Amino acid sequence: MAKKENIVLVGAGNLATHLGIALKRSGHQIIQVYSPGGKTARLLAKTLGAESTGEIKKIRKDATLYIIAVKDDAIETVSGELHLKDQVVVHTSGSVKMNVLKKSSKNIGVLYPLQTFSKSQKTDFKNVPLCLESNSEAAAGLLAKVAGSISGHIQAVSSEQRRALHLSAVFACNFSNHMYRIAELILSSEKMSFDLLKPLIMETAEKVQNASPSVMQTGPAARGDLKTIKAHLKLLKHDKKLRSIYQLLSASIIETDKKL
Amino acid sequence: MAKKENIVLVGAGNLATHLGIALKRSGHQIIQVYSPGGKTARLLAKTLGAESTGEIKKIRKDATLYIIAVKDDAIETVSGELHLKDQVVVHTSGSVKMNVLKKSSKNIGVLYPLQTFSKSQKTDFKNVPLCLESNSEAAAGLLAKVAGSISGHIQAVSSEQRRALHLSAVFACNFSNHMYRIAELILSSEKMSFDLLKPLIMETAEKVQNASPSVMQTGPAARGDLKTIKAHLKLLKHDKKLRSIYQLLSASIIETDKKL
Question: Which one of A9, A12, B124, B190 is separated from A193 by 20 to 30 angstroms, measured CA to CA?
Answer without folding.
Answer: B124
